[in-house]
Amino acid sequence: MIAVLWSVAAGPPAVPAEAAPPHPAPPTADGQGLRALFGSENRSIRTRQRVVAVTFNAAWNDAGLDSVLRALARRHAPATFFLTGDFADRYPEVVKRLATSGYGLGNHSYSHPCFDDLTAAGRSREVRAADRALRAAGAGRALTPFFRFPYSDTTPGWIGEVNALGFADIEFTTDTNGWVGTEGGMTVDRAVRRALDALRPGAILQLHVGAAEGRTDVIDARALPGILDAITARGYRVIDLRSLLKR
What we know:
alpha/beta; 8-stranded parallel β-sheet; 32% helix
């Protein structure tokens, strides 16, 4: 187990530095690791070791899933998938497949709304509904106490609300932007380059499973092999975010 400290990285809107524990203890099995993440917008893992975490969001469909899982399995790479509750309701077989394959599952709200448009009660309902949907779909022990805000739009107050529900906010160092698609000017090479440009000890990479309505090309699925191979070639190792909750 690596010794880690979580940091608040730059991102709109930023969480005030005083909201984060200045020197949280390494995560432990008794839950101290989880509580050390509370009060913070966690966009990276502070460590000197050459380790990174690979994460995926899923809200649209499962179009790129087979390719993603093949690439991960061939390289024995762990990953965490942040699913919306709506996705879990529509694709319970995907939830079970990810869980039985050994990947961690995180909460990405139920319907992926703009949280700024919701009341505190509405935000709570989104988080709780997603949790129920993931559990009903068979997430089981693969379910993590990790939450990722829709659009990565956070405020200190919203983070506090999520923490009160038992979840730590886990965001990302960089997004490959593969979700934009070729219509938005993205290519596989550009997605790979965005990931590698952010490569540093403790980086958290965000990719996406599926494609928005009307699109079938999942750039992140095609970019993943190149990203994983380059991570290894540069002397980095992919770690499971769940390891941060253990001794």
